[in-house]
Amino acid sequence: AATAPGKKITARLKRTLPVRGPQAPTLSELMRWYCLNTNTHGCRRIVVSRGRLRRLLWILLTLSAVGLILWQCAELLMNYYSASVSVTVQFQKLTFPAVTICNINPYKYSAMKEYLSELDKETKKALETFYGFSEGKSKVRRSVDDWNGTGSDFFQQIPLLKVEDFSRTATELHSGQKRRVEGSVFHKDSSIVNSGDSNDIIGFQLCDANNSSECALYTFSSGVNAIQEWYKLHYMNIMAQIPLETKEKLSYSADDLILTCFFDGLSCDKRHFTRFHHPLHGNCYTFNSGENGTILSTSTGGSEYGLHVVLYIDEADYNPFLVTSTGAKIIVHDQDEYPFIEDIGTEIETAAVTSIGMHFTRSRKLSKPYSDCTETGADIPVENLYNKSYSLQICLHSCFQKAMVDSCGCAQYAQPLPPGAEYCNYKKNPNWMYCYYRLHEKFVKEQLGCQQICKDACSFKEWALTTSIAQWPSIVSEDWMLRVLSWDKGQKLNKKLNKTDLVNLMVFYKDLNERFISENPTNTLVILLSNFGGQLGLWMSCSVVCVIEIVEVFLIDSLSIVLRRQWQKAKKWWSHRQRARAGKAPQGSDPERQGHDNPTPVSIDEDLPTFTTALRLPLPQDSPLPRTPPPNYSTLHLDTAFTEQLPDTLELGQH
Question: Which structural domain range is residue 399 located in?
Fold first, then answer.
């Protein structure tokens, strides 16, 4: 029983001592302890320096050093995601690219007349009505198939119009009557060129088949552009209904297109070309496509080597309304790439020799987080409709075609068919034209989302082309050369060739230098950590251990103190609430639970008290000065140690 008061005093001192170190009860005590014990010299100097001026200077220096560290580390982090470009040039034997060649005129006009008779008739009527142009009585025969009854009504539904721009009054092609056109006006070119009257322009109107009030008027800067666009619109309607096998027969064969062929000085023929049917360019032929498992290469540069072909264009059999230029169109590409001849093809003129010198470059960019490119396109949520390696153009065209099928219910004729879809035509999809133009408008304005979804490829090959042109054949050699080429053509051609029907093409490497452009990370992880360490050591004389110490003190210990104080407050609030419900006096009024000199402590720490710290116990703030009670020592009580009184003391007690 004698040791109980001592244990109470020990526990009371233990609860009230100002504990220091990571177990300090307040943030200020924790920060003071950290500054006295940290390895960073600036923080320690703030605490131990004497004088306000010197302490202020150390505070400014320390804060400046911290600011510089943060700035430099932020620069290092931003540079970590940057890349440097390196160029490597190699001299070696180069793989020859694939070369795709198309006639600018996709189909023989003589074979297509039965399908295009009604369309050509309407076009000639528009020229005669609007411009007074007449070829006399049309000799174009009508189709013997069911094409003759399907076009007229539709041409009348979407006729060419002569529009007075300011009054928006249109003159129809068929009836010649004037009517006011409603709906939005879209000028397909930036400027308006007058045709005839001062304010008249040519165009056509498209309306929603389900809502006749929804219309759009498309006008053009030139009557030529308007007639060609209108003609192409109906042309795609017709071609979408012709089977692929029939279209391949209507276009040019390899024997029709290719007169002579040489590669690296050796003769080649149609067996070295692969046919590929393009919706807008008909039969095209790819040299060195690699489909047979063999890819040709060249070990010598210069115009004497490479590919040399002479093409027969047959200008007399061109469609006069579909194409207005003569010649061929070629594109140089990799064997795994799709030839977008309509987008980036190079046009080759007739009656001339065109020399195309190539420089080969391979490029590779770093993917995320350095750039927003894709390695294979597998991470792009767009189905590849071309069955070729991924490219940005493939993604954009596939995305638009998918949106076309979803919005209009059919596929656009110029792109491959998605699974389960069919090409648009006015028989099955009378509303597709209006839908297509509206959708294409959104695509151009980047409102369709395709430009945001599609990304550049991280690696690609590029052939930079240098083109030179010379007259061919020359005047002095024209006669014999055309005779020989006509003889080479043999019985397939019953007339003498004309130089405007011929294209002479040479494609070759100017040199065998392969340029490889690659991106490399400017900083690696090792360099980044080394730079961090240099900045911390330079400005704060700090190491990795110091960083761990900062994390421990400022994150773990500080958070622990805050949470502990909040927990004690919650416990105190709950204790008062429970007593209030029970009707008991607060715990602070119990003399056994609260000392005379010290208030009841809030927290209980496990550090043992010392004599020095026990003398620094805090006084209560809102109570008078303590009054020390009389000591309650057991030795002051007169307790006998004997059970019976001695005989010699009885007398004294009686007296």
Answer: 374-457
Q: What is d(CA 177, CA 166) in angstroms, rounded to the nearest whole number? A: 18
DSSP 559-581: HHHHHHHHHHHHHHHHHHHHHHH
Tens of pLDDT, residues 328-373: 999 999 999 999 999 889 999 999 999 999 999 999 988 888 888 9
Specify the DSSP class assigned to residue 553: I
Distances (CA, A) of 138 to 96, 109, 156, 604: 49, 16, 19, 110
Do 181 and 170 meet the contact criterion of CB atoms below 8 Å apart?
Answer: yes
400 with 432, same domain: the answer is: yes
Q: What's residue 148's pLDDT?
A: 41
Give me the CATH number covering residue 513: 2.60.470.10
For residue range 40-59, list pLDDT tens digits in order.
Answer: 766 766 777 777 887 788 78
| Mean model confidence pLDDT for the chain | 78
Q: Which residue has the higher pLDDT, 132 or 423?
A: 423
Co-location of 353 and 469 in the same domain: yes
Residue 170 carries which DSSP code?
A: E
DSSP letters for 210-221: TEEEEEEEEE-S
- Answer yes or no: do 260 and 200 share one domain: no
Specify the pLDDT at position 201: 78
**13 lies in some domain:** no
Contact 178, 169 (CB under 8 A): yes
Residues 120-127 have a mean pLDDT of 86
Per-residue buried b or exposed e for 77-94, using 16+ beta carbons within 10 Å of the residue's own CB: eeebeeeeeeeeeeeeeb
Both 506 and 360 in a single domain? yes
- Together in a domain, 68 and 119: no
Distance in angstroms (rounded) separating the CA atoms of residues 298 and 623: 102
Can you count the helices (H) and strands (E) in the chain? 19, 22
Closest CA to 184 of 438, 360, 3: 438
Phi and psi at 240, nearest 5°, equal -65, -20
Domain count of the fold of the chain: 4
Q: Are 355 and 389 members of one domain?
A: no
User: Whats the size of the chain, residue-wise?
Assistant: 655
Which range, of 128-137, 285-294, 454-463, 551-560, averages the lowest pLDDT? 128-137
DSSP result, 17-70? S---GGG-SSHHHHHHHHHHH-S-HHHHHHHH--SHHHHHHHHHHHHHHHHHHH
Identify the band that residue 655 occupies on the pLDDT scale cut at 50, 70 and 90: very low
The pTM of this model reads 0.69
Do residues 380 and 301 both lie within one domain?
Answer: no
pLDDT band at 1, cuts 50/70/90?
Answer: very low
DSSP 501-545: GEEEEEEEEEEEEEEEEEEEES--HHHHHHHHHHHHHHHH---HH
Q: What are 228-248's pLDDT values in tens digits? A: 888 998 898 899 999 999 999
Instruction: Looking at the structure, tell me whether residues 327 and 338 fall in a common domain.
Output: yes
Tokens of 341: 């001849």
The contacts of residue 187 (CB under 8 Å, 6+ apart) are 219, 220, 221
